[in-house]
Amino acid sequence: MSVQKKSFDWNKFWMIVLENKCLVLLVAICIAAQVVSGGIFARGDNISSVLRQAAIGCILSMGYVLVLSSGGIDLSVGYLLSFCGIVYSQLSDVVPLPIALLGGITAGILCGYVNGAMTVKLRLLPFILTLGTAQIFRGCAYLMCNGISRNIFNPTMKYIGQGLVFGFIPMTFVIFVSLVIVTWILVNRTEFGRNVVATGGNLEAARVSGVNTDRTKILAFVYMGLVSSFAAIVLTGRVAIAMPNAGQGMEMDAIAATIIGGTGLAGGKPNVLGAIFGSLVLAIISNLLNLAGVSSFWQWFTKGVIIVIAVILDSVTERFFMERQKLAN
Question: Which residue of 153, 173, 242, 313 has the fewest C-beta atoms within 10 A of its own C-beta?
């Protein structure tokens, strides 16, 4: 009796690849980086540098996981980060550090609330609104410091961005892992997370089923403001300077990392762990280009290409799964 061999299921293979596209990309880039750099990439000091570089993008991407999944977008994050950093640094000169930390975090939360409340209550497009509030936050940051960067001398502030735990784990890594855990719990184990997915997936259906979609969207923006303040605190300590343009353009890196990680632009599809992989992908690419001595101009170009590819991949993946769902039905 002959045994019939099963043919390889290419559709299933590609489905698995697309579901884990960011992890596949991360592994491929790590291998390429090790080969191209001549073995320098995998050195302990370089890996520590990559983790520090990825920290800011990873922290910001945690906020974008919620905002994008709720059906929103926030383009003010870069300048919001700068504003929170200036508030934090200036307060540290006149009040104890814990109060300065609380002040910087409060500034982020309030700005996030303003973005969310104006979007929801005034029925404004978040894309346009946050472009406007970005300029407001930018102006506030420059006005507060008169456009002059502030050097940081407080050793505790520096430790937050530069310190090592147990002598080899970057403090920034500890902070972003903590935020990843909090975000994962919010998304996967709380009613708020379920409401975010429902709101971004189908707004009207969520309203009919009793979800307070307005409050859900506002809270997503508030969380974005919160993580932006944490990113500001980490970045200020890392570079030991509070600059009014410190976060300029960082929102694009964070959005790209989040989309590469599998969180859909259309909403309703969060992927917390994928956002980590996306942040690491961008950080490794930047690190590799730095090791190769590539100019910052080409680095900007490369990041732009990556964002475009990320959007295309997101669209292709969405269509692929929709077609699979139709065939299954």
Answer: 153
